[in-house]
Amino acid sequence: MGTGTGGETGPVASGRGDRAGAAGRREGGTLVSCSGGWKCLQSAPCDPCAMLCPPDEAELSLEERLQMQSESGTRASRQPSNGEKAAKPGKAPVKQRLNKKGMFFPSFRPVEMSAKKPMPFLRQVVPVTKKVHRDPRFDDLSGEYNPEIFMKTYSFLDTIKKQEKEMVQRQLKKCRDVEQKEKLQQLLNRMTQQEQAQKKQQKRRERELTLKRQQRELAKQGKKPFFLKKSEKRKLELAEKYVELKRSGKLESFLNKKRKRNAVKDKRRLPSQKNL
Question: What keywords is this UniProt entry annotated with (predicted)?
């Protein structure tokens, strides 16, 4: 142990003892070496151990104090630096995006836009998928068109059309208004034309089916199948038409109309008097 007066100091054991000795010289007291460094013996004693260490660590040994300092250092390293708060383990980090000004803000916030720029009239706020219109007549999902199956499936429409035609005929007989009568007559003519066109298509289909059957039979016999030209098909249609008109007794009127039509065509082909 070493002692010293106000101007003298005892043997120095460490750097901490030097600082304590300097403090004792300034105060003018006597320093005594202790476990924590130097102790001042004066009327108003000052404890350099209490000055250099916390009050609860003043009575601890040097080994225990160093162990406590190492533990406090590891705690400090675990804490986030620059005053940032540590993220809680239960919550996921919030996604952030960069603003035009270079500032980060959460992605769930609305986008900041200038009020000076005019907004577009047709602005798409929420992206909407474009609707694709589907026509069942030209779509493969509806299946292939088979006229025979179609006619069988919707054959009940023919009976409904006949009932509607009869109803229009009854209304036409009872009607007295001229305008309403003309409308009913136009409707009746349209319905009759549709009926005639449907019958014509049905006959043409039956004719094609008969030709296909004949070709199949010829193929079974080992002969080559033949395919009719359009002109030959027209001749067959005309022959069937003549047979039906003769059966109904309208053949003469039909032939007279056809002669007049041909005469008008011949007159148009003749040269006029100006060209002579």
Answer: Coiled coil, Nucleus, Ribonucleoprotein, Ribosome biogenesis, rRNA processing
The pTM assigned to this predicted structure is 0.43
CA distance 62 to 31: 19
| Residue 236 pLDDT greater than 90, yes or no | no
Strands (E), the chain: 30-34, 37-41, 96-98, 104-106
Q: How far is CA 132 from CA 95, 128, 129, 135, in A?
A: 36, 12, 9, 10
pLDDT digits (tens, 9 = 90+) for 156-195: 999 999 999 999 999 999 998 999 999 999 999 999 999 9
53 is a domain residue: yes
Cβ within 8 Å of residue 33, ≥6 positions away? 1, 2, 10, 11, 13, 17, 39
Number of domains in the chain: 1
Residue 218 within any structural domain of the chain: no
